[in-house]
Amino acid sequence: DIAEIWDWKTNKFNENETIEMKAKKYKLQMDMYALFAFKYKPDLKSVNSRLFFVEKSKTALKNEDWIFTKEYTISDIKNIQIQIAEKIGVIKDRYPNTYPVQPVEL
Fold first, then answer.
1. Residue 40 and residue 9 in contact, taking contact as beta carbons nearer than 8 Å
2. Could you tell me what percent of the chain has a pLDDT over 70?
3. Apex 91 CA angle, 73 and 95, nearest 5
4. Which of 27, 34, 41, 100 is exposed most, by the fewest CB atoms within 10 A?
């Protein structure tokens, strides 16, 4: 099975700004969507997480001009968990009265 996650974005774009540049701002969000999808349904083969940039659709000649897609497989999940744990570690340094967090097996 393949899961599809669609997220519609209404961002404004500067003249030279690409959808790849905008998508970087949503990396953690997309990673979390994929993590949750695999957690919810462990037998997935992959997850396609898509950002639909509505503003770009007005002038797009093809889908790739306004739709950013990242495909995830189960092998990506361990690294995502580690990256999230590292981000939590940064937060823990600022707020030391929190509990330790480790990646978990799916």
1. no
2. 92
3. 150
4. 100
Contact 62, 19 (CB under 8 A): no
3-state secondary structure of 98: coil
- Could you tell me which of 4, 10, 8, 59 has the C-alpha nearest to residue 34? 4
Angle between helices 27-40 and 74-94 (to 10 degrees): 120
pTM exceeds 0.90: no
Q: Which residue has the tokens 């695999």?
A: 38
CA atoms within 13 A on the CB side of 64: 0
Question: In what side-by-side order are the strands of the sheet with 2-9?
Answer: 2-9, 46-53, 67-72
Segment 67-91 shows an average pLDDT of 92
* DSSP helix/strand/coil, 62: coil
Distance CA 81, CA 30 (A): 13
Name the CA dihedral angle for 28, 40, 82, 98, rounded to a multiple of 10 degrees: 90
